[in-house]
From TrEMBL:
Keyword annotations: Oxidoreductase
Species in which this protein is naturally found: Streptomyces endophyticus
Oxidoreductase found in the keyword field: yes
Biological classification of the source: Bacteria, Bacillati, Actinomycetota, Actinomycetes, Kitasatosporales
Protein name (database record): 1,2-phenylacetyl-CoA epoxidase subunit A
InterPro entries per the UniProt record, alphabetical: Aromatic_CoA_ox/epox (IPR052703), Ferritin-like (IPR012347), Ferritin-like_SF (IPR009078), PaaA (IPR011881), PaaA_PaaC (IPR007814)
Any GO molecular function: phenylacetyl-CoA 1,2-epoxidase activity
Taxonomy, superkingdom: Bacteria
Catalytic activity, EC: 1.14.13.149
PANTHER family according to UniProt: 1,2-PHENYLACETYL-COA EPOXIDASE, SUBUNIT A, PHENYLACETIC ACID DEGRADATION PROTEIN PAA
Keyword match Endoplasmic reticulum: no
Length: 336
């Protein structure tokens, strides 16, 4: 039998009426499954707060994927060559796919895509603040790939081991694609950095603008992170914000050197004792302002998202009509 986890056995026992299990007993089974690094699956019992936390996190992640298409889509028509255009189109399309996996993962928790999109459009759910910054030059496409997708990978690789099965499995595929995104960004910046003086300056300017917002992607410092401790206990999160941020900095420093670009932080230096880099203070007032809606592009991003949703209504209607027409019940001539 495929459903062999303690979670499934407990759920089946209750469904069969062969066991009288109260919530306390289910909680104990859940806790044991998490402690044993077993995956929690959609039909397993889970605490309401665990479910709510996952929905919030997966929704925010899904929203970030689809809003994140905008800053880069801004450059598709102006990509400098057919090769670059094809790569960028594939990348932006991947992000739509990531959104799809993630909305589907949220659906397994009983929350539909319509509801989540409605919350995004009405501002009740957020997306990553990084996408509220503008893409001013072609080099920004490279900086986003190298730094923003790079930070996303650092954040998401540990999520492949997240305790909730559908989210963890979605992350495996997402991370493979993000790794391609990161490399295309690096390669783009390398070409610019080795190009003319103006191209090099353009690449440096993009890195100067995207570096600090990328570090903010890991979220507030550990002592101010509201949900971190509980998420770590549930094994949704495996590492703290600060830990992941430091890991990212350590990865980027040698890559920046190979690129021939500098990171805009005079305090950045290797700390022999800690075996990690020290870096300067992050301007959290900027992070909070962007989060509150006062970033350079907040208004533009959400307006465009709402418009795309409205303009896509006919596609959704056509897809629903097509699905109804081809459903087995319709094909067999029965009423649906
Ligand atoms: Fe993505
Ligand atoms: Fe990506």
């Amino acid at each position: 039998m495929a459903t062999a986890t303690p979670q499934h056995r407990a759920a089946e026992a209750r469904a069969d009426g062969t066991a009288e299990l109260g919530d306390a007993a289910f909680q104990a089974v859940f806790d044991a499954a998490v402690a044993a690094d077993e995956r929690i699956e959609p039909r397993d019992w889970m605490p309401d707060a665990y479910r709510a936390t996952l929905v919030r996190q997966i929704a925010q992640h899904a929203h970030s994927e689809i809003i994140g298409m905008q800053p880069e889509a801004n450059w598709i028509t102006r990509a400098p060559s057919l090769r670059r255009k094809a790569i960028l189109m594939a990348k932006v399309q991947d992000e739509a796919g990531h959104g799809l996996y993630l909305y589907s993962a949220a659906e397994t928790l009983g929350t539909g895509r319509d509801e989540l999109l409605d919350k995004l459009h009405s501002g009740r759910q957020k997306y990553s603040s990084i996408f509220n910054y503008p893409t001013l030059t072609w080099a920004d496409v490279g900086a986003i790939g190298w730094l923003v997708d790079g930070a996303a990978i650092t954040n998401q690789v540990p999520l492949c081991r997240c305790s909730y099965g559908p989210y963890a499995r979605a992350m495996v595929r997402v991370c493979k694609e993000e790794s391609f995104h990161q490399r295309q960004g690096y390669e783009l910046l390398l070409a610019l950095s080795r190009g003319t003086e103006a191209q090099h300056a353009m690449a440096q300017d993009a890195v100067d603008r995207w570096w600090w917002p990328s570090l903010m992607m890991f979220g507030p410092p550990d002592d101010e992170s509201a949900h971190s401790a509980q998420s770590m206990e549930w094994k949704i999160k495996r590492h703290s914000n600060d830990e992941l941020r430091r890991r990212f900095v350590d990865i980027c420093v040698p890559q920046a050197e190979s690129l021939g670009l500098t990171l805009p932080d005079p305090e950045l230096r290797w700390n022999e004792e800690r075996g990690q880099h020290d870096f300067g203070p992050i301007d959290w007032s900027e992070f909070k302002a962007v989060l509150k809606g006062n970033g350079p592009c907040n208004e533009q991003r959400i307006t465009q998202r709402r418009r795309a949703h409205d303009e896509g209504a006919w596609v959704r209607e056509a897809a629903a009509a097509h699905a109804a027409k081809h459903s087995p019940a319709t094909r067999e001539g029965r009423a649906v």
